[in-house]
Design goal:
Elements lengths: L1 H9 L7 H11 L4 H10 L4 H12 L5 H9 L7 H11 L17
Length: 107
């Protein structure tokens, strides 16, 4: 629900808003506990970090294999700050709101 409600606030360029991220999860074959592992273990309980990771995958900045590895290994191999900077470089309207990408920001 947080992706649907908050996703567009972070990424106004996503034409489908938060629904686009739900569709990304489906395309990646991430369901049930894998979604929770992505949110909790990889993205540190941050909707913004989840949007960063999914948008990076969508833009080709993060491979599906690397994202799946991170999901299965508690975030191993992903530097969310670096990934967020790359996403923001490609999408200047992308809103990080705070310097530390590992902190959840109220929308």
């Amino acid at each position: 629900m947080k992706l649907l409600q908050e996703g567009a606030a972070f990424d106004p360029d996503n034409g489908l808003g938060g629904l686009g991220y739900i569709l990304d999860l489906d395309t990646l074959g991430l369901y049930g506990s894998k979604i929770w592992m992505l949110y909790a273990d990889v993205c540190k309980n941050s909707t913004r970090n989840m949007v960063v990771a999914l948008r990076a995958w969508q833009l080709g900045l993060l491979s599906e294999a690397k994202l799946r590895h991170a999901v299965d290994h508690y975030g191993e191999g992903l530097d969310l700050k670096e990934i967020a900077a790359k996403v923001q470089e490609r999408l200047p309207n992308f809103r990080l709101e705070a310097e530390d990408v590992n902190e959840e920001v109220p929308v």
